[in-house]
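Listing 4. Sequential folding, example run.
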Amino acid sequence: MCGICGIFNKTGYATERDELKRMCDVMVHRGPDDEGYYTSSHVGLGMRRLKIIDLETGHQPIHNEDESIWVVLNGEIYNYRELRTGLEEKGHTFYTRSDTEVIVHLYEDHGEEFLEKLNGMFGLAIWDARTDRLIIARDRLGVKQLYYYEDDKRIVFGSEIKTILALPGISREIDYEALSDYFSLQYIPASRTIYHHIRKLPAACSLTIDKGRPVIRKYWTLNYDDIKLTGRDAIDTIDRELQRAIKWQMISDVPLGAYLSGGIDSSLLVAIMSTVSTRPVETFSIIWDTESNAFDERSYSRFVVEKYGTNHHEFLVKPEPEDVMEKIVRGFDEPFADDSAIPNYYIARETRKYVTVALSGLGGDEMSAGYERYLGMKLLKHYRLLPEKLRAVLVNIIHSIPDSNTGSPWVERMKRFARITDSPFAESYFAMSSKIDTAGKPSLFTLEAREKMGLDYSTAYIFYALAAECTSPDELNQMLYIDMNTYMVDQLLVLSDRMSMAHSLELRVPYLDHCLVECFARIDPSMKLHGFVKKYLLKKVAEKYFPESFIYRKKMGFSSPIVLWLRKDLKSYMLAILNKKSIEKTGILNPDTVLRYVHEHLERKHNHDTKLWSIMMFMLWYNTYIDKVYDM
């Protein structure tokens, strides 16, 4: 695991090593073990390295035999041993034992199609001095991120936005459509970032820079057209492919373990790791030290520990989020409001004290339909089959519930449901996925900000485009495809990367092995959402490893008790940030709306935790990256 960066100077002047070092210095956390640079004519590559494979000879950048091709890699290539064997048989000579070196030789043989040979998580850059060509690329599922900036003189790229911002002359102009996306979803979907002139390279894409303008090419798309597997064939296929993916991702020359929340995904992961490991698996869990036990799954994680004999580390965390908030904000470089960043930050910090690599169960929900919103859309489909008069009666009943009772999240969901009963599929799913109801969202902004966003702009356009792009006519598969290309890649994977790498911990995600993901796409949708049983397929796989009483229980999720904190532990912190003077200074948020949310939440008239957390994280980002608007 590393951080990479680079500069392509269009005007032909030489890239200075000092520029690359400035970029690398702000991401030492991604690679505290080593640094490396390559400069030639108008191109420069830089990297910080966290040593995982080939601890002695894996120094980057790495080159081919005649030093005409150079590469820097962030991530891991899991099939590098098989690839190396084939390349050596063709006559290629290797000078390291690293996974990185296979890339330059694959490129020599296959050109830009080399990406299709790789199984791994990666952000990489290749400089081909023979053709004066620079290629940057991202893995198929987008586990690793890459950002780029272009102006008249140069193209700059890096593993994090901060590497680009480290250079002088980089514009921080806000992209207001991206800001609108953020307040709908709590994250910003690719290819936008909050900065108008900085872009995310989308997952499964390469960007080629040569004599012409940069060209983006998508080299992989998930296809649902193959024959659908069902029944025992589906269960056995996923079990077999999951075992393979986990075994491949356990390759490491440094200590390795796994996150264990006690949920189905992480428990199944640990069970399979235990069957292929020759020693007890190192497992890691956190427990919140709070009055409520609503977020405590320790009984389930301990069951897994006892059943599979893991070497378990359980961390009791006292909620002091104000101590880590600024570090979390600096980890993302743009507004990002998933409150599970807090538990992810803590578990990565504690896990790193014992291992350098950890495996995570992330991705199981998106591959096998584990979220409540999939049920919501199924209910909506059944609702539309009811007689029109009955539908009207039900909607009127829901709308008649007094606002004073909407402190309940279920009432809020019902009211949102009632507003989308006649909406098209993509619009309905966007509403189900949005964190802030679009009906009240405009009042959050000043008129000037709304005009800059574009009064007609809606994040729902992204959902429409992805639904149309999906090769399956089935609505569940379309939802999974949308989530894979938005929520998973731009929220969950960004979160896991930033919070783990903040502590120099490599986090791997076997459920997102692209061959396994392709198998999930071949499974009949009824095996994913079976009646009203979410994640049915993975639960059936888990029956091989766990009793049914353990499997078929209510999902909790890896989150923080933020609704409680905003009324207690974080109340004073929230009030210090969300004051009228500071809000007005941004010129973006409407202070009357924000202060109404604060008052109603503290008075328990409404549950505004998601809105308030999104606003707080925006204010923290604005104060850190744009202009100081408050003093703590």
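-- end of first protein; second protein begins --
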Amino acid sequence: MDQLSNPTAHAVGSAQRAAGKRYRLGFDIGGTFTDFVLIDDHSGQITSYKTLTTPHEPAAAVMEGVRSLLNQVQASGHAIDTAIHGTTLITNALIERKGARTAFITTKGFRDVLEIAKEMRYDIYDLLLVLPQPLVPRPLRLEVDERLNGRGEVVTPLNTADLEALKALLEREKVESVAVCLLHSYSNPVHEQLIRAWLHEQLPQLSVALSCEVAPEIREYERMSTTVANAYVQPLTERYLAQLEQQLRATGFERRLYLMLSSGGISTVDIAGRFPVRLLESGPAAGVLAAIFYGEVVGEPSLVSFDMGGTTAKMCLIKDGRPTMTSSFEVARVHRFKRGSGLPVRIPAIELIEIGAGGGSIARINELGLLKVGPDSAGADPGPACYGFGGSAPTVTDANLLLGYLNPDYFLGGRMQLNVAAAERAIAADVATPLGVDPIVAAHGIHQVVNESMIAATRIHVAERGADPRRLKLMAFGGAGPIHAHQIARALKMRGYIIPASAGVTSALGFLTAPASFDFARSFVARLTAETLPTLDTIYAELESQGRAMLHEAGVAEGEMRFLRQADLRHVGQGHELPLPLPFPRLAEVDLDATLRPYFYEFYAGIYGHAHRHLDLEIITCRLTATGPRPRVSLRETAVELRPATAALKGERRAYFAELGGFVQVPVYDRELLAAGMQFTGPAIVEEKDSTAVIGPGAHVAIDRFANLLATFTLDNGR
């Protein structure tokens, strides 16, 4: 349904295009499902596929999906011009501690910073608090005698004798990867570079990650944690990407494979292999990009992106076509949704709120006798009880099946049968019997509890960013998102909700809307004065040179490169800073007092309501985003049909709606047959092969010319 033209990909000559159809491929490995989208370059036709993830061999599910898509369109891999990929492999390796055996080299006296961390308790009332353990055990945290001051000046030269002493230990301990993070190396990388050169000469089989490249920013613990995380997954990522490329080549694919970054840009395999930590949130980031794209299509640039899959639900506030961004977050939390219980990483990323509310989220009765859902998930193996793969715990998917929302004979388009009896047994044993209620009542309780979790999380996420949900619509997608969208949008008194075409694989489509993009940062701590501005120009010029080289490697033409500057600024004396966009080509030519200071104060006041205009300013970090052009996307419009929506009916079935007193017969529509101009009201169910939409009572749905479902509330909605 989309026609893409991606200038960042390798061009295919007109003669070659004339020989046959050309395609673009996007695929996303999630915790439960792996999603695929193949787009015909000429017609804009979308072919999608969804299959269970194979956790122990992720490439197996990928190759199943790629071969299935190619068979459907009767083409070989030669016809694919661009392939873009997102994966949970890196995140899972950190969570499950299945990365490489890693050593850590730092300045003498600082090896325990990884364990000391911030000396803070993330839960001051928990007497049995469990802290996240460093990825590198203490015996492999090594020290060298060297020292730089905060300005990057050498105080103590690097003692190479220390490196010689480490060689035997690294070999004896069978170390695969080394993270190097020296004090103040963000100001001067010379000693880290010397260590890498020595390691490459003496132990060339080792992977090496330098903090001056991975996260050249102040705050030693965060920089160390990020560098260690990168080194820990680097060998795994390199092997996986090499294997994936090889298997794609076997299908005839000849072009470059690209990877989605957490920031929403795309990267080459080589760069992703060197900096795998930047891929941590690649799949969720793609979902947000797809929401932005569809928001533009339907004329809703400000909305809430709601992506609910098999493992988690992710929300993101989008304002005027831009997602909220962050420069740091946590991974591998001891308590998944407790801030401070994980390992911090300093990378640019789209800011999402994530909760354990996926289709596979497990329901149980807690020690207080209350129903609890998630955050743990049945995942793809063994999966929900209804999958029939050995899972016995009741999940959200089992509940939705019992409530009539899912068709047991049409899951994944009929490729997978769901076992209603197994779902009922699981819910009865673990929820209904302990509560003394009927399994249907228990299933509705599970459905409501998970809805309330998402409603509360969305309300807080939107409010904390100064937005009002009553002025927004919900963009719902993912395999489970369209089932829960109505209840969430209704409870938040939103203007309605949108369910895009091929909603179950929307994240995979998001890959194909992303430009090539790379982020760079370098800390430079100084008061903002007329004397420091030329120095900042020099730093930005160096960052731009790095960005230009990476964009060139990604195939972006010189004239299509764009460079966006930011500076982390704060009032002198503050403990934290704000990222401030810098629309000035040369800072040295900007009047500091008349332009730059007022610019910061107004930006600060816009967020906090006031600014301390009497205080001097301090710069902490220079940031630059190097980006290519956004792929041009044009949707193929369908003709408006005058037929009623009943022409798309595929039958009826009983579904549970509490506001109507329980089970009622509702129409079931075939998503493939719904045409532009058709309209219907809820309650209703809309089925397609990769997702099911549940339209509740009081909603009116119109099909737009791009086959999106646009739902508005026909009743008062509690306003």
